[in-house]
Amino acid sequence: MTEPNKTDLSKFIKESKTGKLSSSRLLVLAWGLGTLIVWIVTSIISTLNGEGLQALPESIVTVLGILVGGKTLQRFGENQE
Question: Taking residues 2-31, what's their average pLDDT?
Fold first, then answer.
């Protein structure tokens, strides 16, 4: 199994045409990872206290959906030009 390295992540975050950082990709990555990390930590703590896994609030799911959907639409629009 190969281990992901910094180069792979930097290729994901950078625009393919210009090579500049993509703020929308970085935003989606930060929100996604941040949400996952917070959910994991709170779920572990609540499980240790006997409460079980935590639910993700609808507002968080909505924001993530808007970010991913917006990036998808943006990418689709770029490919049409």
Answer: 69
